[in-house]
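User: Can you recover a sequence for this backbone? Please restate the input before giving your answer.

Assistant: Of course. Working from this structure:
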């Protein structure tokens, strides 16, 4: 699996969608998203051994995504978006994850 550096996480609350971009210094080979309930959260995993020196927890002050957490594992880099209790009722479709020039983008329609 790929290894590299996660440069930073950029979260943007836009009209109609929430976007999280994981900026990397090289494209990840594999990534996947998962939804976990109770409490509701979106998880994005990038396969490989990634280095990251940014904050591991960030409160957003928002009601939709309340907190962003980062977990570094030997074989993957995990980002967890902790959702607010009313976030599920705001979802307007299936979240998507795609490659972008900067790395990987997770988009949550709301």
């Amino acid at each position: 699996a790929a290894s590299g550096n996660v440069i930073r996480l950029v979260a943007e609350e836009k009209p109609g969608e929430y976007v999280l971009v994981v900026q990397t210094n090289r494209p990840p080979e594999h990534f996947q998203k998962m939804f976990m309930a109770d409490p509701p959260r979106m998880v994005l995993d990038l396969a490989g051994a990634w280095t990251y020196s940014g904050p591991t927890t960030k409160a957003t002050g928002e009601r939709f995504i309340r907190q962003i957490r980062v977990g570094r594992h030997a074989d993957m880099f995990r980002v967890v978006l902790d959702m607010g209790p009313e976030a599920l009722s705001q979802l307007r479709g299936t979240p998507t994850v795609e490659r972008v020039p900067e790395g990987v983008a997770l988009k949550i329609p709301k």
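That completes the design. Strands lie at 3-14, 17-24, 31-36, 41-47, 49-51, 57-59, 65-73, 76-83, 96-100, 103-109.
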